[in-house]
Write a structure and sequence with these properties.
- The protein is α/β, with parallel strands linked by helices.
- It folds into five domains: 193 residues, Rossmann fold (3-Layer(aba) Sandwich); 195 residues, Rossmann fold; 105 residues, Winged helix-like DNA-binding domain superfamily/Winged helix DNA-binding domain (Arc Repressor Mutant, subunit A, Orthogonal Bundle); 91 residues, Orthogonal Bundle (DNA polymerase, domain 1); 92 residues, Arc Repressor Mutant, subunit A (Orthogonal Bundle), CATH 1.10.10.
- Helix 16 packs across helix 17 and helix 16 crosses helix 20.
- The protein binds adenosine-5'-diphosphate and zinc ion.
Length: 728
Amino acid sequence: MNYTEQLQRIFGFSTFRANQEEIVQAILAGRDVFAVMPTGGGKSLCYQLPASMMKGTCLVISPLISLMKDQVDAANAFGMDAGLLNSTLSNAEQHEVMTRLQEGLYDLLYLSPERLALPGFLERLRRAPLSFVAVDEAHCVSEWGHDFRPDYLALSCLKQELPGVPITAFTATATQRVQEDIIRRLALSKPLMTRASFDRPNLFYQVQLRDQVNSQIEAVIRAHPDEAGIVYRLSRADVEKTATWLQKNGIKALPYHAGLDKQTRSRNQEAFNRDEVQVVVATVAFGMGIDKSNVRFVIHGDLPKSMEGYYQETGRAGRDGEPALCLLLYSRGDYFRLRPFVDQLPDERERQLGLAQLSRMMDFAEKPVCRRRAVLRYFDEDYAPDNCGSCDICTHGVETVDATTEAQMVMSAVYRSGQRFGAGHIVDIVYGARTGRITALGHDQLKTYGVGRERGKRFWRQLIDSMLSQGLLKSEGDPYPLLHITVAGEEVLFGREKFVTHRMLADTSEGKKGRSEELAYDPQLFALLKKLRRDMAEKEGVPPYILFSDKSLHQMSSLMPQTPDALLAVNGVGQMKLERYGKPFLEIIGNYLFDNPEAFKHQKSSKVIVPSVARKQTRGQTLEETLRLAETGLSVEEIAAARELKTSTIASHIGELLQQGKGLDVDRYVDREVRSAMTELFKSHGLFRLKPIVDGMKGRAGYDQAHIVRGFLVSQGWKIEEVNDYAA
Ligand code: ADP
Ligand code: ZN
């Protein structure tokens, strides 16, 4: 099996992100690696993928014990064999881990750095079969870095103590000086050096003047119901104030700062991680321990002290690659509030540096320059495009705009739908989205339906934010906040007052490219899938995003797959996750479509709704394309080559086409002998899982053939019954 097949099979991804492939290749070739990748860039895959393919265990050195368990759970959910060794284990457990390590039973073993300094430990490692070492957060080894950890110095001896074991180092931040330091300390030998771009295309950067800070923050949260977010405040006192304000207004929010005791801090962080609260309000102390991939917004209630910090903090949004908002609220006074922090620095040079960073941050907030360009400039990266399409400046940076007409459209939609819906649904009406819910409620018949189609959804979303913060609308209700028109709103609705919004509303109308592949999805189905994910995650004792990312759920509620093969086409669904978790998700989708047959129409027309996915084919179209080529007599490999897709994708298409009874000849794709051997195996294992079939074939056939034979069997009337251990 080659590494691209493995990428699909384990992780369910069809392509590598920037730099991942070259790193994977280097590791497989036994080289040392030094890689800089931004947060969310996909570092873990770089070592997990080769670890799953190489003999022996990959040791992962990770600084935070609190993160290890989640990392191990995530790897195990992909079907890898991962374990951890740290001080939270009992002696007996540690002993067992070491025995398993000696026997080579792990793909990955996570260790804390101080472990290496324990007497006799390196000795034992030397006797274990190791594939390579992956040092995560490698900048912790450098005294010049901002997170220096003395424990990490223990890593200096690795090269000498484990001769012949390649060492790979990963970090999200490294200046030239830190980089040299890491390479020297770890004694990397002729490493592959890579540095991925720090651009995070799915983040939308926005800056606004601070006015009523808590209401502004609240309005943004209200506009993102059910979505996780982080609010950063400068001082502990402000953290407490904002958290209390939000709680009082019915938003599930918890504080996090260094003044809270350790237990409270980790309890609050855990609750956030597990989607039990929507928002954490924190000082910058809330940091490295966040591995949550579905953070949809990060709000800074105050100006950060440096671009470095701003980048790291906003970087916690949207790690799953789905669109996320980074909003900075600032006032000119912030500069003077922050000055004392800088002035009290002991060293004159550091003071200079601190002041320069502060001015730079202020410039960022005030200057009408593309935010993305400004952020990347800080990392010495040139951002070439004129318009990033995903910051407030590029999407129409104006000081104030008269948006009376637009506000009237929104309020008319609120009014005509009976003041009984939340912001998301109102946006859908104004924008003219074709969701199952819109059709079911007949809201496509409203006079305001689709009047705002030429503006992006984001525009409407932000307009509503602005209307909320200016008091034209009120958002009330738990757990589903509904929009009402206020008295002030009526003044505008009936044309007696104008509505002028704060500057900079995003306008992602045609002509300005949206940078994320937003699929139109059915929010109701999405909510159901999310709930299922939460319930299952709770049962398994892992954070929800470990099962499937938000992105995967979005795609499921857009493509609405109804067969295991179709589910495999969803980003982030690999073979193992399909087999472990797929069944209940397919069930929910099936039931949903049964109850809402009209929703399927929405699935089919998804490409019409959002212009940015017009290039993307729906599942139906891509199947048709494969069918057309198959009918001309091309083999799976030939079709794959012609369509520049992987053979595994085409094989799953053929399986599905057979299943749909499209009249393809199964014998053209699979030997009769193989087919009958597989049929026997399917008889005893059921159709749901392919792994036992492929294992049972002992190398005589692989997943491609299994897909095809299964499709054939279904066409013969076999049922895909569950032999799925989740239910057990
Ligand atoms: P970090 O670099 O911050 O450690 P992670 O390894 O946690 O980032 O990856 C961030 C997210 O990106 C995860 O949700 C991961 O599943 C996703 N991801 C990583 N590689 C790919 C890829 N090739 N295609 C799609 N998503 C990916
Ligand atoms: Zn821009």
